[in-house]
Amino acid sequence: MTPGSPVSFALIGVALAILIAVAVWILYTGLRARREAVEAFAANTRLEAMLASAPALALLVRADGRVECPPRLADWLGLTTTPRYLADLTTTMSTIASGAGGGLSLEDAAALSADIAAAQKSGRPFSRAVRAQGSARALMLRGARAARDVQAPGGVIIWVFDATESEAEIARLDAAVAEVTTYYEELSGVIQAAPMPMWYRGADLRLAMVNSHYVAAVEGASEADVIARGLELVEGSGVGGPLASAVLARDAKAVQSQAMPATIRGERRMLRVYDAPLSTGGVAGFAIDIEDLEQARARLKRFDDAQRAMLDRLSAGVVQFASDRSLVFCNQPFRRLFAMKSEWLADRPEFDRVLERMRETQRLPEVRDFPGWKAERRDWFLAAGGGQEEEWHLPGGVHLRVVAQPLPDGGLLLIFEDRTEQVQLASARDTLLRVRTATFENLYEALGVFAADGRLQLWNNKFRIVWGFDEAFLATHPRVDALAEVAAQQLANPARAVLIGDLVRAATVERQQRGGRAAFKDGRHFEFAAVPLPDGNGLFTMLDISDSRRIETALRDRNEALEAADRIKTAFVATMSYELRTPLTSISGFAEMLNEGYAGKLSKTASGYVEAILESVERLGMLVDEVLDLTQAEGKEPVLEMLEVELDTVARAAADTVAPLAKKRGLDFAVEIHASTGATKGDAKRLQQVVEHLLRHAVAGASEGGCILLHTDGTAAAARIVVSDDGAGMSAESVARAFDRFGQPGITRSGERALGLGLPLAKQFVEAHGGTIALVSERGQGTLLTVTLPRR
């Protein structure tokens, strides 16, 4: 290959191209290396900056004990120079005392050396908290074997953290934990001592904690026993059960409360149960015994209902307003008094509307400024001085007494008392007092009113004139003793003046009415009387009885003369009765002899005459006996021979005696003697006479062909005898004097039966036996006589 040949030129070109390519590659590589160096320098600068501002500083400890410590770490340790060896990290106490430096304590340095040695041998990382001497800074050391890239074979890299704030926070948290623990213990003690069941449920709503009151309420052995057995305070499950409230509180994140019944120590109680959700998902609860409160509410409601029922029965109108001035209650008298309809009152109108409605019905006083008047009445709700009272004069002469009483709850109670009648009565009373005063002064009697202390309060002119008292003396309202001393001068017997004081004391102190009489010196006689008055005073009256005394004396004398004449008349009647017996006996004897034929056989007409004589003699003898009985018993009870008497025997004997007389008149005579008639103590003769008198009275009153009845029965207490007839009956006048022994004998003008001596004698004998006799009769209805005799 020759110079200048194409081949040589080609080779040269190729070499140049290679050189250029190599140069370009070298240039590119240099530029890239430069760029990478710049980037590495920037990254290194950034890392150094980041490391300088990092919260942790790196301390490299080589295998030979040399350390690489940044100046910042030396400052943290309180060292004045950067340590070069591990031993330079500590300073003696003498040095610290001289103020020469800080560093780690000997104990911390020894412990750190042991940690570094262990890390170098086993590669085990470590962590330790140390504190610089003479400083409040706390450091956290975390060390591990250095990586190969660190280029410190056998070395240990320690990251140092400034834990001063963390340690302070930890100390603060420790103190807070201690405080919370104390509070928790105290709160637990309060919960245990709480006088109510309290509990805590976990997230699964199972009991996790209960207090002693809960244990006692469910009668558990201990808290652990209650929790283990899951003893619930409130029975039941499902809707309304204890867990339902807890679930609702947990899900709604709100406190739930409801009243539930529970059995505590065998007694049924009502509890108010509260469930409160907690942030842990559990639920805390407690129960308050509201049984007494519920009973108190029930009693209060019953009292309120009873009070309102009582207010409805009052005559006064009563209305009650709440604190918002709305009507809450009114009784029936209020509705009637103010013409309030129940439909309107049901809307609970306000106080102002009620007053306006009263004004519409003209039940308010007439006032010029009604709004102002209404505002003043509105202040009753806030009256600080207690109740208010005023009088309302309504149109039509109606007077109301209004009492406004503020209530403790801010409401108002109004009482409307209709005093119209009282006002009218007061007016009438004033008039009556004036009339009484005028009457008092013009009475014929002498009057004096004494107080309870014995002093003279009121008197009329007659009282002053009778005793001759001076006006000045009476104006001092003297006591009754002083009054009696002055009055004694007017009496015929001055000692009788004490009667005045005795009568006044009896009326004022003993509250008894008493009286007496006294004679004056001038011959007048007065009757005294003392009457207790309702107000505690006593009324002393004096009535001049001089004329009546004279008349009384005259009447007494005349009465004595009449009594003497009556005794003479009685003696005469008795004597005449005995005298009549002798000729009657002779007439009866001779008539019987004629009737028996001793004087020869009589004609039929003569026999009829003789029988009429005998019947008349028998009747006249009976009348004589009755007259004798009445005259002998004059003024005294008849003498009875009290023996055991069988009344049925007595009644039959009397019936047999009267039967011929009834048969002669053609009467139907019925006799009913019951077994219950029994016996009693009495005079058999007198009792038979009683029955005979009753039967004879019935025979006399029965019409021809009529009927009479004798009926006897009895009870354990008394026996009864009944006699009746179907005759014409008796008038009311005859019935009134049937038992009068002075009743008119014979036949009355009206044709009624005679009122002889039979019934008076029967009454006398019955009453002597302690019994009673009654007569019932009407015109045209017959007569009924009933005798009741007590058992003895």
UniProtKB/TrEMBL annotation:
<keyword id="KW-0597">Phosphoprotein</keyword>
<dbReference type="InterPro" id="IPR036097">
    <property type="entry name" value="HisK_dim/P_sf"/>
</dbReference>
<keyword id="KW-0902">Two-component regulatory system</keyword>
<dbReference type="Pfam" id="PF02518">
    <property type="entry name" value="HATPase_c"/>
</dbReference>
<dbReference type="InterPro" id="IPR050736">
    <property type="entry name" value="Sensor_HK_Regulatory"/>
</dbReference>
<keyword id="KW-0418">Kinase</keyword>
<dbReference type="InterPro" id="IPR003594">
    <property type="entry name" value="HATPase_dom"/>
</dbReference>
<dbReference type="InterPro" id="IPR004358">
    <property type="entry name" value="Sig_transdc_His_kin-like_C"/>
</dbReference>
<dbReference type="InterPro" id="IPR035965">
    <property type="entry name" value="PAS-like_dom_sf"/>
</dbReference>
<keyword id="KW-1133">Transmembrane helix</keyword>
<dbReference type="InterPro" id="IPR005467">
    <property type="entry name" value="His_kinase_dom"/>
</dbReference>
<dbReference type="GO" id="GO:0016301">
    <property type="term" value="F:kinase activity"/>
</dbReference>
<dbReference type="InterPro" id="IPR036890">
    <property type="entry name" value="HATPase_C_sf"/>
</dbReference>
<dbReference type="Pfam" id="PF12860">
    <property type="entry name" value="PAS_7"/>
</dbReference>
<feature type="transmembrane region" description="Helical">
    <location>
        <begin position="6"/>
        <end position="28"/>
    </location>
</feature>
<keyword id="KW-0812">Transmembrane</keyword>
<feature type="domain" description="Histidine kinase">
    <location>
        <begin position="575"/>
        <end position="792"/>
    </location>
</feature>
<dbReference type="InterPro" id="IPR003661">
    <property type="entry name" value="HisK_dim/P_dom"/>
</dbReference>
<protein>
    <recommendedName>
        <fullName>histidine kinase</fullName>
        <ecNumber>2.7.13.3</ecNumber>
    </recommendedName>
</protein>
<keyword id="KW-0472">Membrane</keyword>
<dbReference type="Pfam" id="PF00512">
    <property type="entry name" value="HisKA"/>
</dbReference>
<keyword id="KW-0808">Transferase</keyword>
